[in-house]
Amino acid sequence: MIAYRRLRDMREDSDKTQADIAKVLKITTQQYQLYESGKRELPMHHFVALAEYYNVSLDYLAGLINSPRKLK
Q: Whole-structure pTM over 0.90, yes or no?
């Protein structure tokens, strides 16, 4: 569940809506809401896309580490 909280926190910290992130992933807002709430598992390719979008490592986005590491 840490990963799903982290998704929400990253989105809110960047002042984006769920609709904004759904557009990035090319999915519906409702689909993204299910991912962010933890009701559906986010596919790996979406995790990768979000890591690139937020410029953070996958281990941070997944909640495995607490300090973000930049990709570049």
A: no
